[in-house]
């Protein structure tokens, strides 16, 4: 295993005159959950596309699992899975057929068993034989994530994995991501939700105006800001807590 799961040096990428990445640098240690934050249009998806070999950088280097994303693209592709910002699911196939297709593409020995295990894990067993065109947004997201778990690539890229999910769905995804990292996989995710990064990430990086302007653990990032003042306020439940409590009660009935 290479020292670093991902190593990016002085990466540049422009779309015509629009300079998106202007000297991006960072490393990701193996087995770590790394969250990339940044406002809309910061270049998060562009960076993920470069790291997953879908797009070539203009200059700079990026190594994924020790392989160069330009010179050793095939080896990089064998080392990764990618869940894009917009789901890459075949609408005309059922959930089970989508999973079997990916398992076959990855040359797994028992595609049907792999598919059924993942359907079970993501609560999609009942919907397994329905066409994806009839799935809800949350179900699609879960299927998309399940598809990225076919085979055992050591590095996973998740571009906004919980966008469009309800709070319960988000918690499920967080749980899966945590389990993956505990199992030794490296997870590189982008998110718009700061609480998601807070909950999940071992390290956080902020992409702004083409560069990583801050990175570190949450504790390290907190030190960049002035010390918190102590205030005494009544603790109100968050909307998320209320929502989950009500949903839980419904299911218990
Ligand atoms: N194929 C393309 N051609 C031209 N411009 C592009 C292309 N893809 C992205 N861009 C532009 O590059 C910038 C970065 O886009 P990118 O999708 O990487 O941002 P992002 O951080 O993922 O944003 P979001 O949070 O909205 O997903 C944006 O200004 C976008 O409009
Ligand atoms: Mg994006």
UniProtKB/TrEMBL annotation:
Its main subcellular localisation, reduced to a broad class, is membrane
What PROSITE patterns does this protein's entry cite?
ABC_TRANSPORTER_1, ABC_TRANSPORTER_2
Tell me which residues make up the ABC transporter domain. Answer: 6-234
Q: What domain of life is recorded for the organism? A: Bacteria
Q: Which UniProt keywords apply?
A: ATP-binding, Cell membrane, Membrane, Nucleotide-binding, Transferase, Translocase, Transport
Provide the GO MF annotations for this entry: ATP binding; ATP hydrolysis activity; transferase activity
Say if the entry is tagged with keyword Translocase: yes
Q: Which InterPro entries match?
A: AAA+_ATPase (IPR003593), ABC_transporter-like_ATP-bd (IPR003439), ABC_transporter-like_CS (IPR017871), ABC_transporter_ATP-binding (IPR050763), P-loop_NTPase (IPR027417)
Q: SUPFAM superfamilies from the xrefs?
A: P-loop containing nucleoside triphosphate hydrolases
The subcellular localization recorded is: Cell membrane
Q: Which Pfam families match?
A: ABC_tran (PF00005)
**Any Gene Ontology CC annotation:** plasma membrane
PANTHER family, alphabetically?
A: ABC TRANSPORTER ATP-BINDING PROTEIN, ABC TRANSPORTER ATP-BINDING PROTEIN NATA
Q: Which family does it belong to?
A: Belongs to the ABC transporter superfamily.
Q: What is this protein called?
A: Glycosyl transferase family 8
